């Protein structure tokens, strides 16, 4: 196993996660199998309890792990499925060490940060690095480890010490340290300044880690003399210094690294020269370029609670982007604060109320994402009502599906006080209720988390078609509340279709309104499994419906007809023209997978 450690210096928010994922993409494109580990030096055992306001979304894995959003980046970029143990936190490590101490495993020794905590970190890395994450058997070739935070943070000290020791444990030729740093430009003189990078490299060395490669964030490519200065002062060879300058979209980052031959530098440090092929990034290149050249907009309202911080809905945003690219449309997201749609706001802040409704009324499609707590719920219900009544394409995710059911019960069944017991425990018409898989009396550990199967049971439903008419799908969950099984029959009779349920038939997984152009809700979170080039089917449906092309996705036959009348286009696979027609139908045929096909 070879290890690439990615650290960050100077400031946080440099895009260390994207850089680490991009290094993974580059190595994968050279034919290597890649896995990854994210280290978060905070004390929380996992991200499950952290507010999206503060920390961005909580990403959910197949095994139910609630982890840092960077793991989402790894999964999307590398098309892998990670485990909860791929996210190491200080909380997890200390919990592990303290549990061992209580068991008496340290045989009377004084338990200390060095060596006990540092050993636990190293053992954890070695254990997790060999878990296969790409569907193949046996361990990957390379493990990319990203150390969260910035060099010099107090809380990351035990990890730095452990990683310093680890570089000796695995030996030379097996460990490559990439330090991501910032080269700012001072406006007055317009000069690229190297001092912050010099300082952070000095800090790194002082802590016992030696950088092999520098990846410098800057607005423009580094000037030659700036690189020379960095090489001289940081003791890193010139050909091992790369610039990650600003690019129009993050899919360009692996290409930037490739163009600067970062793969050759990494392969030299890791003694990989013999197995390294020229990276094949044809599909990435096409997609990055395609994304830059999309002009026809598709406008989607995201009606949520955390609209001030787009990271709070990162995977939703990425899934919308994947679907828009598949439909060759430029994604425009209008963030609508759910509270602002409510009557209360009309009184208290009429301008915000007007602005929110104006935004909502100007979009092609509406998405209500997941959420917890009652703030903004009434606004979300109003958004679902607006989409249902005006035949605007609608996708509700988790809470977004629950509020759509509440809205339907209120408006169509005239159950005006219908609600979720999460918000009104004493409601007379509880259409959403607490349905834990385990204990009904204890909240802790009662969330339904991770991958669960949903079985399609309505023939010809849009969702089943979008998922390629499979009998079931495996999507990720994170919720406690669900549609009340006792109300299903009434809702069904009034026209709400439950297109998919769990294996017991008691948990409603997908709702649809058959007489609406596109109105779908899912109890699961399809966004977590969306990938560039493999858009999530429900997102693809929303975007296609929003640009009036749903038929093309749902009925491949008519799509081919459409193509014949418009003439076939040239399709490129990794840069080579292919004869087969390229259409949205192909996207669905491949279950949302574009196979790198893009019309030029
Ligand atoms: N709060 C709701 C529940 O617990 C929805 C959760 C979500 O949207 N992730 O069921």
Give a topology summary.
Layout: E1 2-8, H1 16-29, E2 34-40, H2 52-55, E3 59-60, E4 66-67, H3 70-78, E5 87-89, H4 90-103, H5 113-129, E6 142-147, H6 157-170, E7 175-182, E8 185-186, E9 191-192, H7 195-206, E10 213-218, H8 224-234, E11 241-245, H9 253-259, H10 262-269, H11 282-292, E12 297-304, H12 314-326, E13 330-337, H13 343-348, H14 350-361, E14 365-368, H15 377-389, E15 394-397, H16 399-411, E16 419-420, E17 430-434, E18 448-456, H17 462-466, E19 472-479, E20 481-483, H18 488-493, E21 497-501, E22 508-512, E23 519-522, H19 537-546, H20 550-554, H21 556-566, E24 571-573, E25 576-578, H22 584-589, E26 597-599
Parallel strand pairs: 1-6, 1-7, 2-5, 2-6, 7-10, 10-11, 12-13, 12-14, 14-15, 15-23, 16-17
Antiparallel strand pairs: 3-4, 8-9, 17-20, 18-19, 18-21, 21-22, 22-23, 24-25, 24-26
The structure holds glutamine.
Catalytic activity: UTP + L-glutamine + ATP + H2O = CTP + L-glutamate + ADP + phosphate + 2 H(+)
EC number: 6.3.4.2
Family: Belongs to the CTP synthase family.
Commentary on this structure:
- This protein is α/β, with parallel strands linked by helices.
- It has 22 helices and 26 strands.
- A 9-stranded mixed β-sheet has the order 13-12-14-15-23-22-21-18-19, sandwiched between helices. It has a 7-stranded parallel β-sheet with strand order 5-2-6-1-7-10-11, with helices on both faces. It has a 3-stranded mixed β-sheet with strand order 16-17-20, with helices on one face.
- Helix 1 (16-29) crosses helix 9 (253-259), helix 12 (314-326) crosses helix 19 and helix 15 (377-389) packs across helix 16 (399-411).
- The protein is globular.
- The two termini are 40 Å apart.
- Residues 559-600 have low confidence and may be disordered.
- The structure holds glutamine (GLN).
- Glutamine (GLN) binds at residues 370-372, 398-399, 422, 478-481.
- It comes from Arabidopsis thaliana x Arabidopsis arenosa.
- InterPro entries: CTP_synthase, CTP_synthase_N, GATASE, GATase1_CTP_Synthase.
- Pfam families: CTP_synth_N, GATase.
């Amino acid at each position: 196993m070879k290890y690439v450690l990615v650290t960050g210096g100077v400031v946080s928010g440099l895009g260390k996660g994207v850089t680490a994922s991009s290094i993974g993409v580059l190595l994968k494109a050279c034919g290597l199998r890649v896995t990854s580990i994210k280290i978060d030096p905070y004390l929380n055992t996992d991200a499950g309890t952290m507010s999206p306001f503060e920390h961005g979304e909580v990403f959910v894995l197949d095994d139910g792990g609630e982890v840092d959003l960077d793991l989402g980046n790894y999964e999307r970029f590398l098309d892998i499925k990670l485990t909860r143990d791929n996210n190491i936190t200080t909380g997890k490590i200390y919990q592990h060490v303290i549990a061992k101490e209580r068991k008496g495993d340290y045989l009377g020794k004084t338990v200390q940060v060095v060596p006990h905590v540092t050993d636990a970190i190293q053992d954890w890395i070695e254990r997790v690095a060999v878990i296969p994450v790409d569907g193949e058997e046996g361990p990957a070739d390379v493990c990319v480890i990203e150390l969260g935070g910035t060099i010099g943070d107090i809380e990351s000290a035990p990890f730095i010490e452990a990683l310093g020791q680890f570089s000796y444990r695995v030996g030379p030729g097996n460990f490559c340290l990439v330090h991501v740093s910032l080269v700012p430009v001072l406006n007055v003189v317009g000069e690229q300044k190297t001092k912050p990078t010099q300082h952070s490299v000095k800090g790194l060395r002082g802590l016992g880690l030696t950088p092999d490669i520098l990846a410098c964030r800057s607005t423009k490519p580094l000037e030659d003399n700036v690189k020379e200065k960095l090489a001289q002062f940081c003791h890193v060879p010139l050909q091992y210094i790369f610039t990650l300058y600003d690019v129009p979209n993050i899919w360009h980052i692996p290409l930037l690294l490739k163009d600067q031959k970062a793969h050759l530098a990494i392969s030299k440090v890791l003694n990989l020269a013999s197995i390294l092929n020229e990276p094949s990034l044809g599909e990435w290149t096409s997609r990055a370029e395609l994304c830059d050249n999309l002009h026809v907009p598709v406008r989607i309202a995201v009606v949520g609670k955390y609209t001030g911080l787009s990271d709070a809905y990162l995977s939703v945003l990425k899934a919308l982007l994947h679907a828009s690219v598949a439909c060759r449309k430029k994604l425009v997201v209008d963030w609508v604060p759910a509270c602002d749609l409510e009557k209360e706001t009309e009184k208290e802040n009429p301008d915000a109320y007007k602005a929110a409704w104006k935004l909502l009324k100007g979009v092609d499609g509406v998405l209500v994402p997941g959420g917890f707590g009652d703030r903004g719920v009434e606004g979300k219900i109003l958004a679902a009502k607006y989409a249902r009544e005006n035949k605007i394409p609608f996708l509700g995710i988790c809470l977004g599906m629950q509020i759509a059911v509440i809205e339907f019960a209120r408006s169509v069944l005239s159950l005006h006080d219908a609600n979720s017991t999460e918000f009104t425990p004493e409601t007379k018409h509880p259409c959403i209720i607490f349905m834990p898989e385990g204990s009904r009396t204890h909240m802790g550990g009662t969330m339904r988390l991770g991958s669960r199967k949903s079985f399609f049971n309505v023939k010809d439903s849009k969702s089943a078609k979008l998922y390629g008419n499979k009998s079931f799908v495996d999507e990720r969950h994170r919720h406690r509340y669900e549609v009340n099984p006792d109300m299903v029959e009434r809702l069904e009779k009034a026209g709400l279709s439950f297109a998919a349920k769990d294996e017991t038939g008691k948990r409603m997984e997908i709702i649809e309104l058959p007489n609406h152009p596109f109105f779908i809700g899912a109890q699961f979170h399809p966004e977590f499994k969306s990938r560039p080039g493999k858009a999530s089917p429900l997102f693809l449906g929303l975007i296609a419906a929003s640009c009036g092309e749903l038929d093309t996705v749902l009925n491949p036959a008519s799509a081919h007809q459409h193509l014949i009348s418009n003439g076939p286009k040239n399709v490129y696979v990794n840069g080579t023209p292919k004869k087969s027609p390229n259409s949205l139908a192909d996207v669905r045929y491949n279950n949302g997978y574009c196979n790198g096909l893009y019309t030029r």
